[in-house]
Amino acid sequence: MTDPLLFLRNVLETANNILRWVSPYAQLQRNVNALLVGAWPEYLLLLGLMLVEGSILLFFSIRSLAAKGVRTTS
Q1: pTM
Q2: pLDDT digits (tens, 9 = 90+) for 46-57
Q3: For residue 67, which of 10, 25, 35, 56 sits 20 to 30 Å off, Cα-Cα?
Q4: How many Cβ atoms sit within 10 Å of the Cβ of residue 27?
Q5: Alpha-carbon distance 50 to 71, whole Å?
Q6: Rounded Cα gap, residues 71 and 3, in angstroms
Q7: Per-residue pLDDT reduced to its tens digit, 18-36
Q8: Phi, psi (5° rounding) for residue 69?
Q9: At what angle do helices 4-22 and 24-37 cross, to 10 degrees?
């Protein structure tokens, strides 16, 4: 017999792991840690991933604002 709270704990732990990977602050922390350790290949990889993630987030935020009809001043 499985405990329902164990299932909920596993679901929340998985969601937490996904959010920690997507979080820009967690990305920055991993990047700084790699820099402090001197792991240059890991640092460059994480820097590239951070730039790609930032570009994706910026793209979707611009599309979201454009879809909502945000007024711009010209």
Answers
A1: 0.63
A2: 899 889 988 998
A3: 25
A4: 19
A5: 30
A6: 52
A7: 888 878 888 888 899 999 9
A8: 75, 40
A9: 70
